[in-house]
Amino acid sequence: MAKQCGIYDPKNACKCSKQINYCIEVDWFKPNELKFADKGLIDAAKQEIETIMSDSAIFLSHPNYFTPDSILKGIKSLLNEGKFPLLTSEN
């Protein structure tokens, strides 16, 4: 997250809404033909991503919004608490 997420680190541009659709378009990713994935793991990851996307939509809808350091620390703390293990895993 620290190297890719624009909310986690403002130096990074937000790419969430672009990545999956592009991968599907160029046929790198076929959602209905997953060979090395566990359905339960996929559902858990999907739920984590949807939760984060929903929460981050507030910030994306206000482009001039300045995020106070306390909010950024809170988001980083949330990610580090283990509530979203699939997104914070180094594996």
Quick summary:
This protein is mainly α and 91 residues long.
Intertermini distance: 12 Å
Shape by Cα distribution:
globular
Which sequence of SSEs, written as H and E, runs from N to C? HHHH
By helix and strand content, what is the structural category? mainly alpha
- Extract low-pLDDT stretches: none
Fraction of residues in H or I helices: 40-55%
* Rg, Å, rounded: 15 Å
Biggest sheet, in brief?
Answer: none
Total beta strands: 0
DSSP strand (E) fraction? Answer: under 5%
Textual characterization of the structure:
There is one protein chain. With 91 residues, the chain is mainly α. The protein has a domain of 54 residues. It has four helices and no strands. It starts with 15 loop residues before the first helix and ends with a helix. The relative contact order is 0.14. The model has no long low-confidence stretch (mean pLDDT 78).
Task: List the defining traits of the structure above.
91 residues, mainly alpha
How is the secondary structure organized here?
Elements: H1 16-25, H2 39-60, H3 69-80, H4 85-88
